[in-house]
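Hi team,

Below is the intake form for Homoserine dehydrogenase from Planctomyces bekefii. Please confirm the fields before the structure is written into the shared record.

FORM ID: S-0412
PROTEIN: Homoserine dehydrogenase
ORGANISM: Planctomyces bekefii
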Amino acid sequence: MAPAGLFPIGLVGCGTVGTGVVRILQSSADLLAAQAGQSLTLRHVVVRDLTRARDVDLSGCAVSDSLDALIADPSVQAVVHVVGGVEGPRQDIVRLLQSGKDVITANKALLCAHGDELFELARSLGRTIGFEAAVAGGIPIISTVCTALTANRILAIEAILNGTSNFILTRMLDRRQIYDDVLREAQQLGYAEADPAMDVDGTDAAQKLAILAKLAFGTAIPFDRIARQGIQNIDLQDLLAAADLGYRIKLLAVARLMTERLEVSVQPTLVRADRSIAMTSGAHNFIAIEGDAVGVLKLAGAGAGRLPTASAVVADLVDCVTGRAACTFQALLRLQQRNPLPLHPSADIARRQYLRFNVADRPHVLADIAHVLGRHGISISSVRQDETEDSVDGTGVARLVILTHRAAEGCLQAADNEIDCLDSLRGPRIRMPIAD
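The structure came back. Fields below:
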């Protein structure tokens, strides 16, 4: 057993977040001891590659490439698990819980896929799982939903939950750069992975939204039921056109109650430029959460990165030491026992839309598109066409932007299918909702 006044800790994974945890434990040891009432002592570190150099001092703890020694140490009561992937981490956390240890994780993909299973296992064993760092990095949104807002019925969540996409969209507009160039810069700065697909296609934000929606609304949402669209097809001209119209384009994660049904989506969306969420720049996250009593709360800050994410992990550790984690985890379990809400049929969701087409610069093209929209009950609010050089033979390409009045998604999809068959289209087009 550990000496009185010491709280031994295990760490699985010593990459970006793991090294951040070590740094905070070492640099803020006195502050953390005062907060926790005990000294947090790192006793075991488990890594994949023992030969890899790391920029933190691990000389005071046992370093291995196996969980076995960590699991066998009865003095370790809490383990930080910050390894990516799903199946391997699931097996690790099951073993850790079964060995009598509380677990802190930042793995949103794991919780999205197996959260219910792991939470139930932890409950049955009298253990806890802390996961503040899994959503929005250093922003304390999990504790806000689970404890601070318990007097409220949550009505809506509107958020920027992926810093990589927000960085790309911000940089493109501010520096008038194209998507591919900014993506490369994001990779060089460490904001985007070598394979950025999960960030830019909306997967990462959708996983985080599913976790938040489960806590806020007591409803498990199958991942494939979240309307999801990425930012890959947005070009600089879309951002400039939106800005001219008084909007910014953001990858918006939304979960809201609509007549006792739940609407969930992750889509690039036009947001009024004077709104706080539109002014969230760079790799920052933003979450607006509306309660029936408190109104709208707004939280913003670093949604990723070594130290912001590690800050949330260490906060969960301190909660484990003080006993707050057990109270919060029980509150979380109670939140999940509510009657689930039905999902609002996506075809019935009505919103204004931004439509952008690259079309042949010839007569009747706009009329053809307007005719299709009109047949499906979609009313046009405004039309903008960039000026092009005169093309006598009709080989020129024009850029056409249409804003619509509110229209149901089912009608829009039916119109999409017809418009895709028009021979006047030249290259990809895009459709994005406009936030009211």
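SUMMARY LINE: Residues 6-130 form a domain with the Rossmann fold fold (CATH 3.40.50.720).

Thanks, M.
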